């Protein structure tokens, strides 16, 4: 019997089709961003990326990612451990609730947070009385970003932990391992690649989130405008070079994230082979 993958013609067609799709969907847009960013030369590009509002938008974007990723890393691992290692009433419901950010539009999520924490929201009066401002400030941006990115780590880790099972962990507990030893010596080595994918996805979404952030931030330039919002504002101002220069920064951040992931993958593989 001849398998489809062993037929030379079929294999070449599939490889060619995949290459064309990747070229059209990934490489061409990147080339277009670079071309538009440098359309008027290096000097306008440099002036655009060193613009004060763009720099502040970049710093705010990085701040949101730096806060969001560690929180969702801990949250995702805890949630995955809870779902895969314990049986309790409502376990299936909890597993379903994880997917709510996937099902709810980010714009709707932003509106819900505004309804809850805004000046006229359910908790807005209490927050105002205690001089706490969440909406139209960076804490609100962090809150909605946590919401839209919370499933990524858990969704990557849960299937791996389900396949891994509990036998190794139960054996370690029998031999006297405590909780931290159990996690760092048994569980973490088995889920580290899934964790890496989850962190990469969380970071990418945190950096590029637009819909929910646009609702709760107010998009105040130099204050609550993140880099994706800055791209839109510059484009609406007909500052094409500035918009594509900011978009190029976002693309470079994404590439940098992938490079870090590849290096960590390589390190993890070498570490595994070394063992």
Write the layout of secondary structure elements.
Layout: H1 8-37, H2 42-49, H3 52-85, H4 91-97, H5 100-103, H6 106-117, H7 124-129, H8 138-149, H9 151-164, H10 167-174, H11 179-208, H12 211-217, H13 227-236, H14 240-274
Helix pairs in contact: 1-14, 2-14, 3-8, 3-9, 3-11, 3-13, 6-8, 6-12, 8-11, 8-12, 9-11, 10-11, 11-14, 13-14
GO molecular function, one term: ABC-type sulfate transporter activity
Subcellular location: Cell membrane
Membrane topology: Multi-pass membrane protein
Summarize the structure.
The chain has 14 helices and no strands.
Would you give an account of this structure?
It is a multi-pass membrane protein. There is one protein chain. This protein has about 280 residues and is mostly helical. It folds into two domains: about 1-40; about 40-270, Orthogonal Bundle (MetI-like fold), CATH 1.10.3720.10. The chain has 14 helices and no strands. Helix 2 (about 40-50) packs across helix 14 and helix 8 (about 140-150) runs antiparallel to helix 12 (about 210-215). The radius of gyration is 23 Å and the shape is globular. The mean pLDDT is about 90.
